[in-house]
Amino acid sequence: MYPQAVPSTRPRARPLPANNAPAAPHELGLVLVGLGVVVAQSFTLPVDVPFTVAEIYVRVKRVGNPADSIKVGLRADSAGEPSGTDIETATILGSALGETMTWVKFTMANTTALAFGTTYWLLVSKTSGYS
Questions:
Q1: Of 51, 70, 80, whose CA–CA distance to 123 is shortest?
Q2: Binning pLDDT at 50, 70 and 90, where does residue 40 land?
Q3: In CA terms, which of 10, 61, 82, 111 is 20 to 30 Å from 72?
Q4: CB neighbours (10 Å) of residue 122?
Q5: Residue-averaged pLDDT of the chain
Q6: Where would I find the beta strands (DSSP E) of 61-119?
Q7: The whole model's pTM is what?
Q8: What is residue 76's DSSP assignment?
């Protein structure tokens, strides 16, 4: 079982870094709260429009001197849980993260077309065990 995730009270809002391009009209916003190795949140598209995953922003910080990376994965739903296979992933070295909480962009391949009415999962994890 994955740690509890808290849905955003503004489902279409997503904080962006000051230097980021203007927000697109069909973005998803999720707030993930959890401790441990994996945090997961399910979502569906709020509107029936063509949508591919170009980038995912996660608010994270570095603690200590991690030797591993942070991975963001997109997965299909399997009976109310994330499936065992990533559709797309992106990673960033833990050592490249700052020591204060900030929004970090994970660039995806932008090739996966998401379907309206289908449940997907966003997973954030370390590439090694908890330390």
A1: 70
A2: confident
A3: 10
A4: 21
A5: 75
A6: 69-78, 81-93, 102-107, 113-114
A7: 0.70
A8: E
b/e per residue, 55-79, with b = 16+ CB within 10 A? ebbbebeeeeebeebbbbbbbeeee
Six-digit token string for 35: 């401790």
Q: Tokens standing for 22? A: 């203007």
Sequence-distant (≥ 6) Cβ neighbours of residue 119 within 8 angstroms: 42, 43, 44, 76, 77
pLDDT digits (tens, 9 = 90+) for 64-109: 888 889 999 999 999 998 999 999 999 999 899 999 988 999 999 8
Residue 39: HSE in the Cβ half-sphere, 13 Å Cα cutoff: 18
Q: Which residues pair with 103 in a beta bridge?
A: 59
* Cα–Cα dist 32/1, whole Å: 15
